[in-house]
Amino acid sequence: MKYKVITITREFGSGGRTIGRELADKLGYKFYDYELVKKAAEESGMAEEYVKDHGEDANGRSLLSFMWNNAGGSISDLLYIAQRKVINQLADEGNCVIVGRCADYILKDRDDVFNVFIYADEDFKEKRIVEKYGERPDSPKKRVEDKDKRRIAYYKYYTGRKWGDAKNYQLSINSGEVGVDKVVLTILNLL
Questions:
Q1: Distance of alpha carbon 81 from alpha carbon 44, whole angstroms
Q2: pLDDT at residue 73 above 90?
Q3: How far apart are the C-alpha atoms of 75 and 65, rounded to whole Å?
Q4: Which residues contact 133 (CB under 8 A, 6 or more apart)?
Q5: Which residues contact 13 (CB under 8 A, 6 or more apart)?
Q6: Across all residues in the chain, what is the average pLDDT?
Q7: What is the mean pLDDT of residues 151-168?
Q8: For a pLDDT cut of 90, what percent of the chain falls above it?
Q9: Is 54 within 8 Å of 153 (Cβ atoms)?
């Protein structure tokens, strides 16, 4: 197969992580999402929990961030550099599905990468996050808005591109309309 790496960029609640995992299983590819967080934590020397919570933030506001900023960079930049290095290493190893973390942009110059953007309508996403992650003090609508707002800012900051712009992907697909299982089959058929 021409494509050794599939990147999944997704709206929160669209099922992108599930789609990525099922796709990897069906292809016999490695799957990187939280595993990428662990590898980025090792690379950067930061705590895994910090990377998980802040790995898609466009700026940092901690004391450590302040000190790093005064040295010529931000903690977010340091983390992005570590994630970029890990993503490139994983792509070099081949046959993998990578979720998020600007992987589509980081790997844009490779011809063995298939980039997918998964989106859905608000009702589908809100219902899905409650089913998957449970009720929280914030409304499902606010949770979706906050998470996607962070992803949009992060993507724009590190890529200069508009997050979700169809020109950046070989496929943009509405998982709420098509269904998560059919999205997986559609990607497999395209590949």
A1: 8
A2: no
A3: 5
A4: none
A5: 120, 124, 125, 126, 128, 129, 132, 140, 144
A6: 89
A7: 95
A8: 70
A9: no
Q: How far is it, in rounded angstroms, from Cα 10 to Cα 119?
A: 6
CA distances from 75 to 64, 89, 140, 155, 157 (A): 7, 21, 29, 16, 14
d(CA 114, CA 85): 19
Residue 143 is encoded by which pair of tokens?
């949770």
* Tokens describing residue 161: 């591109």
Tokens for 94, please give them.
């081949």
Higher-confidence residue of 57 and 133: namely 133
Place of tokens 């808005």: 145
114-145 pLDDT tens trace:
999 999 999 999 999 999 988 888 899 999 99
Amino acid found at 118: I
Amino acid at 113: V
Tell me the one-letter amino acid at 52.
K
Q: Which residue has the tokens 């069906």?
A: 26
pLDDT of residue 61: 42
Closest to 94 (Cα-Cα) out of 112, 76, 81, 77: 112
What pTM was estimated for this model as a whole? 0.88
- Nearest Cα residue to 35 out of 73, 75, 89: 89
Instruction: Give the CA angle between residues 134, 179, 122 to the nearest 5°.
Output: 55
Bridge partner residues of 117 (DSSP): 9, 172
